[in-house]
Amino acid sequence: MPSLIFDLDGTLADSRQCILDSVGYAFGKIGFHKVSFDSIRVTQQDLRKSYEETMEQNQIPFNEEELNRFITEYRWYHEHEGEAGLSLYEGVVETLDELRSHFGLAVATTKHSLQAHRVLHKLKIDHYFDHIQGTDPGMRYKPEPDILLHTLSALRRSSEKSAYIGDSIHDMHAAASMGMRRIGAAYGFAGDSQLIDHGPDWLIYDFRDLTGISYEILERLNQSLAEGQRRLNSQ
Asked: pTM for the complete prediction?
């Protein structure tokens, strides 16, 4: 069975305000109450990168200990305050219900695995997924493909028979480096203006659009698998 692998933030869940509030809180707790940060970029990259870029933009020296405190405070606020405001995009439950009869479903996210499990459980959709993969210690963040490698291994699926759905250019690049089909979630944090130039096979403007293109996705994934098998046989 082909697989659909989903990003979490900006794809399954509208967590924009949760992320922004958590980042603002964390900077305040380490003494930078009035620091300015790029509200678009911090919703699409890992915490270390957000800290580094913000320090550079505000001409503040980088400090490793301070970075670790920033990440700790971010995660505390995210769990204890921010997650109360998380919500699914419209149509997620109904669409996952439809898709799971044709696809194996999984999640691959920048969040740590425990955090991803907790969030998906709170949103009451964790049971839809055969595997939930976070970016755990020792793994590189997107656009590196580590989480996709681990997910495909756990699912025992080939990249040719899988597609990744995400809302950022990092998602598109990670999937491309694995040879996976790419579905850009243009309703998410980046919008279509960033995604369209990075080679998505499909763009969707509503999560429910996946239902309408599911048979086309199946056909193209099966075609990719057949082409890959032909290449192996010719070697």
From this structure: 0.89
